Amino acid sequence: MLTYLSAALPQFTSPAGRLLALQCALRSDTRGHVTLADGLLRGMRLRGRRELWLELSQAGWLETATVREGPVTVRLLDAAVLDQAPGRGVRRRAAHWALHPAPLVLPPASPAALRLTALVLASLSSGTAANTEDMGTVSRMCGHSPQQTKELLDRLVSAHSLAIWRHDCDTDEVLWQFP
Questions:
Q1: Final residue of a domain: which of 99, 132, 159?
Q2: SS3 state of residue 45
Q3: Which of 66, 99, 132 corresponds to the end of one domain?
Q4: pTM for the structure as a whole
Q5: What domain range includes position 151?
Q6: Record's superkingdom (predicted)?
Q7: Alpha carbon distances (Å) from 84 to 32, 59, 67, 81, 100
Q8: Collapsed DSSP state (helix, strand, coil) of residue 29
Q9: How close are the terminal C-alpha atoms of the chain, in Å?
Q10: What order of strands is seen across the sheet that includes strand 130-134?
């Protein structure tokens, strides 16, 4: 879904907007309706962030809702999201995992850009000691430039969420290891 959203959303979509779109896509029903509980939005640090809903609406990705206290219900306009497989139960588990992407552990108050980068790395991890991926792929999935991605990887090391990371300029691959 992260790969799909990297293509479906405009490049300028904020990291918080991407995290919100991911939850909407994974939690939607077959008609594209999704209700996000107030507690979920509060836990994601996105409660009351009307600008995020407007950002996704202006991108033509969802129908704007009236953002107020309590749960938010929207309708997704992206037809490709409605045809997604596997089933809804699997997508709900993926939505929950996306909030706590093991093996990466971040403080709950981490900025959205850092949380999205951690989620992308966790989703690309193979379960081995060292993981590699093309820098362009990582940057595109995060919605950042390669330079921004490098800075965020440094911040993940500083937060002890990553043990190390390295960029091989010859192959343009990023290598990272978890603690």
A1: 99
A2: coil
A3: 99
A4: 0.88
A5: 112-177
A6: Bacteria
A7: 11, 20, 26, 5, 22
A8: coil
A9: 26
A10: 130-134, 173-177, 164-168
